[in-house]
Design goal:
It is built from four helices and no strands. By secondary structure, it is an all-alpha fold. The longest helix is centred in the N-terminal third of the chain and has 16 residues. The chain is flat, with a radius of gyration of 38 Å. It starts with a helix and ends in a 33-residue tail after the last helix.
Amino acid sequence: MDTRHAIGIALLLFASSSMAEPPQRHSAAPRAGAPVKPGAASPAPLKLQIGDVRKYMMPNEYRAALGAPDPDKSTIVVEGQRELLPMKSLQPVPQGIFAPFWAVANPTQAWRVLLPDPRAAPAGPPDVVPKPEFRWGP
């Protein structure tokens, strides 16, 4: 066997033995499923029953609850927002002398070199008349 294989197997065995469970320590409290010694006080079992539901509800509420359809079976509520991924068509395209080199590097997006930048301000005359200022009072 090669020395590297032997070292690898030894490290694997060491790692698996160190990950094994530590030895069990005996404690005064009995564990679940452990045999109980006679004469030892055992805790009372948990009482998880609700009893008669009609004791807690009015009769008309009880009848309405029995006749009502189960909302969990027929209703699905999904809440959340999906993060929008950045679109390649909104990323800037180099302009000027670098545009042909970018078009060669990105042939499927080369058509974007011929179009104006969508993020640029619209062409046309600037707003000469200022917009009215909104005020609550006189």
